[in-house]
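User:
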Amino acid sequence: MTQSKEKIRQERNKQDRLNEVKDALAKEILARHDVATIRIKGLSNLDRWQAKGTWCSAYDEWRQILITGSDEEVVTAMTDKHEHFVRLRQSPPYPGMLGEETRMRIWDEVMSKNLYEPF
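Assistant: Predicted structure:
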């Protein structure tokens, strides 16, 4: 394998693991909180970020899902493997719903597994 292909493979594996972290965090949030609480916290975060001028297009999508989506649609946005939802989870509106210790445990568990998984 050429050096550039190896670098691309490593980068892709890093992104795959980061996506796994985001998935695991979302699942842990769903295990600890009901969807109504997730909506309230997510909308509160979005309002605060918008007031500070910290905004991206994913936040518009999240706001729409949290306001008008069914509980099932919120869960789908948080857990579905479709590339659209994977992209949305790169900018989740629900930080602050897990403690630092839990977040770091999940991060460590996911990032330490499958480091050299074949492509």
